[in-house]
Structures are given as C-alpha cells and as structure tokens.
Amino acid sequence: MTDPYPCLRRVSIAIAAWSILYCLIQFGVLGWQTGYVRARQWEWENRKMPPDGGITYFEARHPGLYTIYSETPERRRINALFAIVLVALVVCIIHLVTSVGLLVGAVKRIPWLLFIWLFTVVATIVTTATYGIVWWAGDVFNEQLTMSIAEFGLAIVNCPCFVIVFLYYLRVTGKLTSSKPHTPDPMLAHRYDPKVPEWRQSIRERPSEHFLKKLKRQERRRISAAWDAYEKAQRERGSTPHAQNMHSPDYRQPSPYIPTPDYGYNSHQQHVPRAEYRPGHHTQRRYSSSPDKSGLRRSRSKSPTARRVYSKKHQEQYTNV
C-alpha cells in the first residue's frame, strides 16, 4: 500500500476550496431564510389568546413568561427556526474565515489552521442539519421543502470532508503513522526492511528554510568559483605568447599546426608521368631514356605477384611519414 499522505494533502486543498464555495452559497440561502422566518413571526405575532381576553397583572409583572405558556406550536417552531438560522449564519461567517485558513494550512502544512477548521465545520453541519429537521417537524411544502432537503444533503456531504481533513491533521502532526512497509514490486530483488526505525518518525518531511537557504548559497558559490576559474584560465591563455604554442597540438590552445613531413631530400618532387613511372624505391626511379637498366631488370626479373608486393611495399615507404 502506498503512502496516502500526498493524496490527503491534495484532497484537503480541494475541500478548502469547496468550503469557501459552500459558505458563499450559504450566505444567500440563510439570508433568504432569515427574512422568510422573520415574516412568519410577524404573521403569528398576535395569535396569543389570554384566558380573560386581556393582560393580567402577572403578565404585566413578568412580560414574556405568560407568552411561553400561551403560544401555539407553530409560533414556537418558528421562533426556534429564527434562532437556529441566526446561529447558522454567524457560524457560516466564521467558517468562511477558517476555510481560507484551511487552504493556507493544507498548502503550507500548518496544523493549527487545520485544527480550527474542524470546530467550525462541525458547528456548520449541526446547525444546518438541525434547521432542515425542524422544518420537517411541521407542514412544509414547495420551496421550503426543497431548501430543507438541500441543507440536510450538504450537511451530509461535509461529514466525509471532516474525516479527511482530520486524518490529514493527524498525519501533519505525526500522530498517525504506519508500521507496515511499502509493498515492493515482485519483479525487484530488493526488499524493504519490515522494521521501521523509531527515528524515522522524527525526520522532517521538508527541510528547514535555513537549511535550504544554506544549500542555495553553497550552490551559488560553487558556480561563481567555477566561472572565476574559467575566466582566469582564459586570461592566462590570452596572455601567453603565440610563438610558444605555435607547434603545440594542445586542444586547449588551438594553433595553426600543420605537420610537414621531411623525406630527406628536396621537398619539391619532380612530376613523373604515370606512363613513365616504374615501381620501386624513389632512388631507383628510372625513365625510359635512362642508360641504367639494372633496377629495371631487377624489377622485371620477379614474377607479377612479387612485383606487386615489391611495388606496394616501396610505395608505403615513400608515402608514409
């Protein structure tokens, strides 16, 4: 089983984006519900029926206490809905702030930002689900029924989000570790050690900022030193007289080095036509008008194969340096 940490981190970032969008949606829905519930309160405001038809001394002495005993179930439910929707709206505002913190904490691996978001998401789930359930306690139709079902469904969606972020929080804080090693590829001969050392849990997954700055500083110095050495070598090479390296085959100092072979006699060879050329050493070259026939007789006295070998050997001696 592979390490789920990268997956938890990416999903937590996606959950943070969803939470921000969810809060913006809730602002519109809860704002609409606040106005709707307040209008229903005003509609049922005067449905109180005192026994004697007026305000008694006890009711005047303790205003509001007698109303609790005399209010109808519909008015009692609408008062509860008004209180719940106000609490849900305030919690949603706080949840928007913590959702932005969750996005930052998931990206930069900050545990306390993840921890705060867990409280606000639980409060959001409880308030919105309760608001939908209280609406179902009475007669609800049309858009209020649709709204209550949608609120309850969104509360259910936030439950797995809470679990995923909680697991990511445990991984970031180091409280959730696995003692089971990574299962290797069966085609590989290397096997992982099943015993995970204790000090492995104390190693930071990302080096400290001070250490990273030190590595970058050393890398810049190494590159700068290499360039300084290269420029110094170029200056020294440019200051060296060209005459000293005229005949040097050094590839670091290219020079017009053209090797001239020395054959031991005048380099200006006389052109010999192909028809008049006779195989043999260059000292034995003869023309058809030469009175010395000894070299020619010696070359002709051999067999055709011997003459070819003899000619080839002396040609190599003549041409090779």
TrEMBL record:
Residues 230-239 have a biased composition (Basic and acidic residues). The chain crosses the membrane at residues 12-32, 80-105, 112-137, 149-170. Residues 230-321 are annotated as: Disordered. Keywords: Membrane, Transmembrane, Transmembrane helix. It comes from the Eukaryota. PANTHER family: MARVEL DOMAIN-CONTAINING PROTEIN (PTHR36694:SF8), PASIFLORA 1, ISOFORM A-RELATED (PTHR36694). This is Uncharacterized protein. It comes from Steinernema hermaphroditum.
